[in-house]
Automatic annotation (TrEMBL), chain A:
Its main location: membrane. The chain crosses the membrane at residues 35-59, 103-127, 134-152, 172-193, 214-239, 277-296. InterPro entries: MetI-like, MetI-like_sf. Keywords: Cell membrane, Membrane, Transmembrane, Transmembrane helix, Transport. PROSITE patterns: ABC_TM1. It is a multi-pass membrane protein. Residues 104-296 form the ABC transmembrane type-1 domain. It holds the Pfam family BPD_transp_1. It comes from the Bacteria. Belongs to the binding-protein-dependent transport system permease family. It comes from Paenibacillus mendelii. It is found in: Cell membrane. This is Carbohydrate ABC transporter permease.
Automatic annotation (TrEMBL), chain B:
Pfam families: BPD_transp_1. Keywords: Cell membrane, Membrane, Transmembrane, Transmembrane helix, Transport. PANTHER family: BLR7065 PROTEIN, SPERMIDINE_PUTRESCINE TRANSPORT SYSTEM PERMEASE PROTEIN. The chain crosses the membrane at residues 51-77, 83-103, 115-135, 147-168, 175-192, 198-220, 307-329. This is Carbohydrate ABC transporter permease. It is found in: Cell membrane. Residues 109-328 form the ABC transmembrane type-1 domain. Residues 1-12 have a biased composition (Polar residues). Residues 1-28 are annotated as: Disordered. It comes from Paenibacillus mendelii.
Amino acid sequence: MGNTATERINTSTEPLPNSKRMASRLWRWRKHASWFQVTLIVFLTAIGLFMLLPIIFLFNNAFKPLNELFLFPPTIWVKEPTMRNFERLFLHSAAGVVPFTRYLFNSVIVVALTLFSVIMASTMAGYVLAKHRFHFKTLIMSLIMLSLMFAPETVSIPRYIMVSGLGMTNTYFAHVLPFIASPVAVFLMKQFIDQVPDALIEAAKLDGAGDMYIFTRIIIPLIAPAVATISIITFQAVYLDMEGSTLYTQKETMKTLAYYVSSLTANLQNSVAGQSIAAACALLMFIPNLIMFLLFQRKMIQTMLHSGVK
Amino acid sequence: MKQSNTELNTDGGTLPGGIAIRPTPGKPAAPRALRRLRQFASECWRDRMSYLFLAPFLLAFSCFVLIPVFMAALLSVTTFNGFAFPKFIGVNNFIALLTQDIIFMKYTLPNTFKFAIIVGPGGYILSFIFAWLIHQLPKGLRDYFTLALYAPSMAGGVALSVIWISTFSGDRVGYLNNILLNFGIIESPQLWLQDPKYLMTIMIIVTLWSSMGVGFLAMLGGLQTVNTELYEAGRIDGIKNRLQEVYYITIPSMKPQMLFSAVMAIVGTLKAGLISKQLTGLPITPGYSGHLITNHIDDYAFLRYEWGYASAVSVVLLLISFLIMRFCYRLFAAKEGE
């Protein structure tokens, strides 16, 4: 039994389970499974491996020494893992005008501020839209539904004009505020809060609870899965966002990590020395996303149960 | 004041002033309108908590979504270089787009059409198929496969560039070249990303690879909401195989999630427009082979500084995606009585 416990840990940290153990596990399970499911698993494993191959490659590349990166024939698995690429990434930037840590600091600040404000704004809006009745509610709801398909890339010029008009260029506001306007977050939140029974809120009201009390003591504790989901979605968007750094800020000291690594890896097609740094950067940009998702995967699907547009 | 508020709150929006007006029918409409207005104001005041809660989102939403869209619409009828005041030129931008923009007609439109048709509905159908297949597995195994399929959608920006540039690298160290050379399918290394013949296909493959995002998870969630008793009922009613089950039971039961997922697919396709830049490192791809509408907008906005014209193109793009969304709503809208 202890064996299965370690097995589970192994498989959850490393998406590619040990094939031998997996096989034996499958064989045990096969006794009460139809042929349909067995072929299905084989098929899906193949697809899954195919989808993961680039990711596995990403992990290995980051630890390859420079000579292995240009080895012929090219390999996927790293032979002599080294931290040299990461060292170079940090050193490279130390020599620059703005230190690497400044970009990292900016990214951390921006991500933290954005996550907090998006979660607050969307829960508050979601609560009101789900449980209150007031004028303009249908109008606001239909605007949100309409803008679900909104991609900021389509109107980047007016957004730039807005940001500079509000005097937010070269501030953290320029990085954070545009993300609060996230119709998807509000929509998911509203759908999730819809599921909270009205009776609960009515009972609290009878006991004399105000909106603030209901919101902080009843709604917030019940919507953890939706908060987790919105965190994942927002995190992915913010952490990889370039719009804030390329359009809304001109000062180098206000730009974020995503911008910095992309400037390091620009012209990746032609640069040889850049490859090692690029590999480290890529992992750096991918890992936090992966960790967020691994932490909240179940919660995310739980939220998606209510994502339907009716 | 507080007293009256709670009172109003409990009876939820009846018209307390309505009776008072009746006894004086001879009076003109003005006081009545005033009364209405006052009542409306008092109702708004009563709901002030709601508006307060909505305020942060609504402010940001108007600043960064609503007003920009309106501005784009306004700018689209002007000529504007970012410095001088915009000059009104009517619908000339749109006329120019349809009649004079050779690149738009010759490359952008066909490219976008091809890309969107395959990546949009294609990615959508693929994510449904995979979600459904994963749902057929026992619960313990589902998470691993979900992770495997979702992981690529997290690899954006630099990660995506690093992975795919080395895969499609033009020398023989590139993974694809190496494999194909080994099997003798090609004789000399191909410049995959620089060759206009291949770029579009590669863009489509990469986008499909990373398209199992939120929409895919929504489908997985949707599949869990389907009432399993329906399947048994369906079997009694003569459903023979799983395909029929999917068509007659699964899809109709999860229409709301299908719709959400479709909307996400539209957004994903719109956003994927910049993938050619990530792959080739060039704002304009060789021979315009990977030139999509979003690249076209960026070209005019940030390389040529013709913001009026760029806005006209983005208005067209927004209109097209809006129409597609309406179509999706038609397709998946809940039938009356549901």
